[in-house]
DNA sequence: CTGAAAGCGCTTACAG
DNA sequence: CTGAAAGCGCTTACAG
């Protein structure tokens, strides 16, 4: 516990009070168990620690960082915090960061290139030790620049151009959904595909399309549309899909749960009953999926773990190590939104 | 754009190359438009700026902070990032922070007192200029300590013990829901009340109860239960409410949209149809509300603005000013989850 | 208009 | 076992 707020307690404060040199105090306070010996005599160590405790000494991180060139700060860029998936990933990152004495500076870039760049610059300017990008664009243009500047980074959720990334195996997840729907006999399906520049949407949709192609079914263009990953995006995309075709598909695959919920809303607006008239599947298994009146079939993506592992990889990089991308296994969660609907004959 | 990554560009780099003293360079780079005159001659200013641009000079924030005792860092403590409401508030905070050159360090404390304390200590140790608490407990015990330590702070979303807070007028919002349900003739209602230590839940529930009391209706204890604010909390609480009573209420008010969705799930499990057999209302008007198969009546809370204003107030505090709490006006959003259900006669 | 000095609080090899 | 020095990169009154 700190005491008064007026005279900040510094190494000097401690050194003066103890009749020691600041360097001695510093050494003691840094000594890791094991190398305690060379820091000072055990008596001195005890005295120093005691007073530091009493006065509530907290090292000034700016001073340390200035000397050591390490800030213990990690920047996390995400498209939006209000995206549950990213929020869960951030929680995983933060948890793992806390365990390592790192602090995270999380910022939303809204998938706006100029913002992404500005935030990355800001992070670099802040001398963060590393960056976690949750908002990578698949071509990785900005990343090439950051890479050249030398600050270590990893990607989470979205992969890009060979940089180390921790993702769900989105392609396989997309295939799982397709195989499930194929197994139920759905031949006329539509895809609410998300953004064309994010690997999540791309891979999920591609896995889905490939599985259908393997079954000899090519989706016509009017059964496939890009959109924002959120509720509104899914709603608008689904409305478009429905308006463009003479009749609705028998199933819709939305590449995120949020978009799937948007699809639910759009279908409702047209009196099409999810789970009865049409099958709907999402991706993520966020909290809403299991609570909907007709529970949502979806693909469970280990969001929290993606964040954790992302930070662990970055940690490895900061220690000078090498890391390889990780692709975590998805799991199909079957619920009534697909099982209670019959495909059209 | 920065260039190479090897030799970091410092004031010294610039000064040496230009044959100037670092202090002159520093002055120039700090000169705000208007007081440019006293920094250096306009020729010098031009030269300095040009070179700084070319070399991609970025002031080392650790060095500045060490000198100025200002970190331009603001800590934000929230119960959980995965709570949409808090995420939206964080986005508002971040947006306003960006405009002021402040960076935000956001961390989740999960409503665990030990974590809350640890994170607050961490923030203080990091020498943040100020703190925004989104996880305040109504008694404000920790806040009293922080206050004594002298770091400015404001609360968002939840108020506590007279500290400056930016909230939705939760009490009024709770009343709005009650008046709406009363108007529809609901006399047997239940409350999914959230956590007993957070002002959001307390005030929303109290407003609701008071309005019912004003109408001469006291809720029996088996129609009121506390719970976590999320989907699972709402689900479990609703299950409890239903199990404890011989028959279901004709309406349920959940103090968050997430909990309301959980209620929807629990009702579904028992075959009780929302909007037909029972009315359900939430609070927040998060993105899910409008998309549900039976759209959710809820209270719109200006989450983004709460965050923005929170940061603005903190900014005022950092400038040495005084601030007063703000209570923003809620708005009832009526949808079918309440209007299509008939109260039991 | 520009320079020189002092100092923010720390860390780290180096002496002794 | 402990001290002294140097220096991280910046800012800010103060001289001149």
TrEMBL record, chains A, B:
Task: Tell me which UniProt keywords the record has, alphabetically.
Answer: DNA-binding, Transcription, Transcription regulation
Q: Which domain of life is it from?
A: Bacteria
Report the GO molecular function annotations.
DNA-binding transcription activator activity; sigma factor activity; transcription cis-regulatory region binding
PROSITE patterns for the chain: HTH_LACI_2 (PS50932), SIGMA54_1 (PS00717), SIGMA54_3 (PS50044)
Q: Which residues form the HTH lacI-type domain?
A: 9-68
Q: Does the keyword Transport apply?
A: no
Which SMART domains does its entry note? HTH_LACI
Q: Which PANTHER family match?
A: HTH-TYPE TRANSCRIPTIONAL REGULATOR GALS (PTHR30146:SF109), LACI-RELATED TRANSCRIPTIONAL REPRESSOR (PTHR30146)
- In Swiss-Prot or TrEMBL terms, this protein is called Transcriptional regulator
Naturally occurring in which organism (per UniProt):
Saccharomonospora marina XMU15
């Amino acid at each position: 516990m700190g005491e008064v707020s007026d005279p900040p307690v510094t190494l000097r404060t401690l050194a003066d009070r103890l009749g020691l040199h600041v360097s001695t105090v510093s050494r003691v306070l840094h000594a890791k168990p094991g190398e305690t010996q060379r820091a000072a005599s055990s008596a001195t160590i005890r005295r120093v620690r005691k007073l530091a405790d009493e006065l509530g000494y907290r090292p000034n991180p700016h001073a340390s960082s200035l000397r050591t060139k390490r800030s213990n700060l990690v920047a996390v860029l995400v498209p939006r915090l209000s995206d549950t998936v990213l929020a869960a990933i951030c929680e995983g990152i933060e948890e793992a960061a806390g365990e390592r004495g790192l602090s995270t500076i999380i910022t939303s870039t809204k998938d706006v290139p100029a913002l992404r760049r500005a935030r990355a610059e800001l992070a670099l300017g802040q001398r963060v030790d590393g960056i976690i990008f949750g908002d990578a664009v698949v071509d990785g243009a900005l990343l090439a620049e950051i890479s050249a500047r030398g600050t270590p980074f990893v990607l989470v959720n979205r992969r890009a151009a060979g940089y180390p990334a921790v993702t769900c195996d989105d392609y396989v997840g997309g295939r799982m959904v397709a195989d499930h729907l194929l197994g139920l006999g759905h031949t006329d399906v539509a895809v609410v595909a998300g953004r064309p520049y994010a690997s999540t949407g791309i891979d999920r949709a591609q896995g889905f399309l490939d599985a259908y192609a393997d079954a000899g079914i090519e989706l016509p263009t009017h059964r496939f549309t890009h959109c924002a990953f959120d509720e509104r995006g899914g709603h608008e995309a689904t409305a478009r899909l429905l308006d463009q075709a003479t009749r609705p598909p028998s199933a819709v695959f939305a590449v995120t749960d949020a978009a799937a919920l948007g699809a639910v809303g759009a279908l409702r607006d047209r009196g099409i009953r999810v789970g009865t008239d049409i099958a709907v599947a999402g991706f993520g298994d966020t909290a809403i999926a299991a609570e909907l009146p007709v529970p949502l079939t979806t693909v469970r993506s280990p969001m929290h773990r993606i964040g954790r592992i992302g930070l662990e990889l970055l940690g490895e990089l900061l220690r000078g190590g090498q890391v390889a991308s990780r692709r975590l296994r998805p799991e199909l969660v079957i619920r009534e939104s697909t099982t209670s609907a019959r495909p059209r004959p």
